Amino acid sequence: MLTLSVIKADVGGYVGHSSMHPDLESKAREELAKAQQSGLLIDFHVTHAGDDLQLIMTHELGEDSTDVHRLAWETFEACTAVAKSLKLYGAGQDLLVDAFSGNVKGQGPGVAEMAFTERPSEPVIVFMADKTAAGAWNLPIYRMFADPFNTAGLVIAPTLQEGFRFEVHDVMENKRIFFDCPEDTYALLAFIGAPARYTLRAVYSRANGEVAAVSSTQRLALIAGRYVGKDDPVCVVRCQGNFPAVGVVLEPFTHPHIVEGWMRGSHCGPLMPCALRDCQPRRFDGPPRVIGAGFQLANGKLVGPVDMFDDPSFDEARHTASMVADYLRRHGPFEPHRLPLAEMEYTTMPQLMKKLADRWESLDGKEARKVEAVKSRRGRY
Ligand code: 13P
Ligand code: 13P
Ligand code: MG
Ligand code: MG
Q1: Is the overall model pTM greater than 0.90, yes or no?
Q2: Which of 83, 158, 242, 369 has the largest count of CB atoms under 10 Å?
């Protein structure tokens, strides 16, 4: 079995949160090359999405391998040292603990891993986003694997007609549920339409049980208990054969859907698909970006990448994203451009609440009683 591990972290931005200094990538390549020489990795590719360092690795040690996770952690530490020497912004931002403890999950970095037997031809796409949160993949993954208006194969390819199984995580309660589509479609949508809480973790083919897609669901703010930057998630999708074709895996990104993130992780904005070279979110630290690196796997070797959104047929999506960005920006600090209060609790609002606590005066009387009634009703959900 081959394992494809994508592990990422923000270990320092250049300039601000907009991009990555080339020395960080060089350092990461140096570290991973050593691991390849020692036989730990079969192959690797290092890239970045905005200010997030992406380690794409193949090996035979399975998911959650301590050796591979330690390698990623130590690589991030080595890159943090480079970032500190250059005084890059937020050096070591996503390394939330002082010492590695066996698995990077819950320690800050984002992880998407899948183990499978390599097919005679194995096209995979690694999607990487910056300035957004883990639930950002819910809508595009739904479209790829459950929407017949997006994915022609669900209608016309016998290999896809049995549908797909979706694994959804409740990131607040730390539990999971599986939905079988098409029959569970409406129930699935009831949950994943609320991506701040319910995130699509994985998709499996119902024809043979094989893993089709995995995403990183780690929510930094919930791990850290405070705002430390956005999750900037990754997602790996296998294509063709029993899975959707490359072209339909890309198709959902022609609609730059609204995601949370952007400036200070506290706003919503359109997810703009772009070429690797354009993944440098600058306007209001955004708008949020997604890149796609396509590979053919050959005995574990990562043949590629092909820059999947470096294609003029995505120009219109980029243009739409810019227009939506203009429109939303004009709301300034008002909702819904700024995130709703419940979400702000995981970002910058708690400090402000604390600061102003003494200046609030209570109101007595009728209105207060009505508010109490509303609050107790709300508590029921
Ligand atoms: P080709 O005929 O170019 O191989 O494409 C086949 C296909 O299924 C495209 O989605
Ligand atoms: P990152 O999560 O990409 O570090 O962005 C943080 C931020 O606050 C941008 O304004
Ligand atoms: Mg950053
Ligand atoms: Mg980032």
Answers
A1: yes
A2: 83
